[in-house]
């Protein structure tokens, strides 16, 4: 089955799945078309065949088949669209006001059912109704828009995956949304402070001077007078504004009052909230001068390794056996390590006794970090997050698990003469990636998603269950966890 | 199983490697970022320092057995960690929304700075967090630059797409654990692309300031009394530098200007932590009261960036660069120029 199921299983937004925000649906029309037409297609290039079908100008091809080919392609590109949304979420980092779930309605709006074709000049989406009549579609599916604008004939065209990725990042509704919410967690002053030369280049000359002068004064004071307790970027002080005015004067920019300067800076900050300013360069794929081929971005989904391979089969069998054992030992080891590390930290040593009770509240009582704050007499959500940090524990358990598996497989591979000692870096990397794909699929993906799910967390992953067992083994250490530290 | 669509979604998108900074990290970064000269460099050094300490904390947690050592080059605002057998260069940025990483040209072109692995860290200064965004092996990086025939885009930076980086920080740990130094070969000085003339020049002609502390001076560096009218100038310029070792060198700015000579004066003072404090001044030669107008004294980084500069005005007795500190082994260049005439002196602390 493999990767081909991407052509007849579509990702759609779903309110039912609060954990993911989307669900995978089988598209029967696409599956049928794929099995009847594509599987036997001559040249073996599935995607080119489908694109040729969907964009055909041959009037003898029936509309239903064109629409079915379209459904296959619409399913296929729902994956890079989701990936682009998650990537945007990931790149914003930090404590922002949105998650990728908020972006999905703009671009993952395909119902996976409606039969759609394009008009002859490829400008309009047309619907085929149940009677086979063709009419104009009242609103557009984003997937079809991606296909409509994809120049697949062109020699220089990029891959469909990358086109979908790029179009998602440039979707106007996503851009508007990000301009409004992307930097909402940052004050004007934090945003100005964070601005780098690449963004400054996009401003007018006068505004560039304003930001540069702001940096000269504000960043200097930020470094030198940073109050650890109040980490937020404060409003610039009157003294700072006055100094900026003097600096601006030297650059022949006369602003008559500190109030006007402050307003001017706020105006610049408003511009800086535009998402475009931060993304204006889009490296996607490059042409290899030797082969003339385009190499797709390495972060886009790539074909997985061939499961038919006997050697891989053996490794998979071995992995299945070892994975769960490794997870259990890694959880015990990392809980213990985290306590040790807390005891070493100047800021958190005194709170180390709250670590196990905190984790129990989180994983056994399903409390949120916010709810845990008063229960353990902590001072803030930030303190609870930094102390308990369920994401870091998970991440560390994953690291240790994968490393244990990697070590075992490397030993086996060396015994069989499959690799040298030490291995080649590329071999090591590929092997690690395969183990990660496997382990994430089996254990860590679900565990990661449930942490991010927010309120209605179910916490029923294998990882959560094993963690609860580990925590239950050490009830006597709740009040004195030092006994647990080995 | 492996081909389930969810498996193509990298867990790293959901679970980035975030490291929380602690007050002592911020204080260290604050201290170390005082040495560069203008605010742009200071801020970048501050970010680099935060990235370095955060990353170092992460490494120590994950590789408790490995020796980890800082190797900073504050003057270039480049930060390095020696992790076991591997040299890591830590590059900091504040956002990667355009999915491009700016690699300082000299972090790649200068053989001294070449590292086995380059780690890109996003610093969220306000949140007191850093995120490991990815890393790239030296051989991959050079290969990419070669393949794309990469030109310097601007301001001495190579723009590398984020997608060229390995987004999984764990692989760094695995490299360190399972590989040997020779597994990631670094080009030697001979075959590195040293198109940087200044760099080649530096290899040959460097005044080693550290040796001055042992009383060893290269030819040409004289006691200042031989070069500057002591009565006039000491009272003015050297009052505050009576500590440490100071030497001067006569610089000929060319016959076109009637054999105009100036004296480059360097004063070094040992500081805590093995550091040296450096003060650089330019004086008129004996018998002259003022410097000629429009002489420029500049501090130049090894990649050719002007870090700090001063111009002489009509009646300057001397001019000087801001005092700075550095660690042994750091390189810098001082340029004296007047119109088209440029003379450079290279130093190693």
Residue share in helix of chain A: 55-70%
- Output the helix-strand order of chain B: HEHHEEEEHEEHEHHEHEEEEEEEEE
- How would you state the average pLDDT of chain B, rounded? 80
CA-based gyration radius of chain A? 27 Å
How is this fold's topology laid out?
The complex is a heterodimer of chains A (486) and B (349).
Chain A: E1 9-13, E2 22-26, H1 28-38, H2 46-54, H3 63-92, H4 100-107, E3 115-118, E4 125-128, E5 134-136, H5 142-149, H6 160-169, H7 172-181, H8 188-194, H9 197-200, H10 205-224, H11 238-250, H12 258-272, H13 275-279, E6 286-287, E7 294-295, H14 310-344, H15 355-363, H16 369-375, H17 381-388, H18 390-415, H19 425-452, H20 462-473
Antiparallel strand pairs in A: 1-2, 3-4, 4-5, 6-7
Helix pairs in contact in A: 1-3, 2-3, 3-4, 3-5, 3-6, 8-12, 10-11, 10-12, 14-18, 14-20, 15-20, 16-17, 18-19
Chain B: H1 11-14, E1 17-20, H2 23-32, H3 39-62, E2 68-73, E3 78-83, E4 86-93, E5 100-104, H4 105-109, E6 117-124, E7 129-137, H5 138-147, E8 157-161, H6 170-178, H7 197-204, E9 207-208, H8 230-236, E10 245-252, E11 261-270, E12 276-284, E13 296-300, E14 306-311, E15 319-320, E16 324-326, E17 331-338, E18 341-348
Parallel strand pairs in B: 4-6, 9-18
Antiparallel strand pairs in B: 1-7, 2-3, 3-4, 5-8, 6-7, 10-11, 11-12, 12-15, 12-16, 13-14, 13-17, 17-18
Briefly say what this structure is:
Chain A is mainly alpha-helical and 486 residues long. Chain A has helices at residues 28-38, 46-54, 63-92, 100-107, 142-149, 160-169, 172-181, 188-194, 197-200, 205-224, 238-250, 258-272, 275-279, 310-344, 355-363, 369-375, 381-388, 390-415, 425-452, 462-473, and strands at residues 9-13, 22-26, 115-118, 125-128, 134-136, 286-287, 294-295.
If you had to describe this structure to a student in words, what would you say it looks like?
The complex is a heterodimer of chains A (486) and B (349). Chain A is mainly alpha-helical. Chain A folds into three domains: 4-179, no CATH class; 188-278, no CATH class; 305-473, no CATH class. Chain A has 20 helices and seven strands. Chain A has a three-stranded antiparallel sheet. In chain A, helix 8 (188-194) crosses helix 12 (258-272), helix 14 (310-344) packs across helix 18 (390-415) and helix 18 packs antiparallel against helix 19 (425-452). Mean pLDDT of chain A is 84; it is low at 282-289, 296-308 and 476-486. By secondary structure, chain B is an alpha+beta fold. Helix content of chain B is 22%, strand content 32%. Chain B contains eight helices and 18 strands. Chain B has helices spanning 11-14, 23-32, 39-62, 105-109, 138-147, 170-178, 197-204, 230-236; strands at 17-20, 68-73, 78-83, 86-93, 100-104, 117-124, 129-137, 157-161, 207-208, 245-252, 261-270, 276-284, 296-300, 306-311, 319-320, 324-326, 331-338, 341-348. In chain B, the strands form four sheets. In chain B, strands 1-7-6-4-3-2 form a six-stranded mixed sheet. In chain B, strands 9-18-17-13-14 form a five-stranded mixed sheet, with no helix packed on it. In chain B, strands 10, 11, 12, 15 and 16 form a five-stranded antiparallel sheet that branches. In chain B, strand 2 and strand 3 (78-83) form a beta hairpin. The relative contact order of chain B is 0.11. Mean pLDDT of chain B is 80; it is low at 1-8 and 189-202. The interface between A and B is large, with 96 and 75 residues.
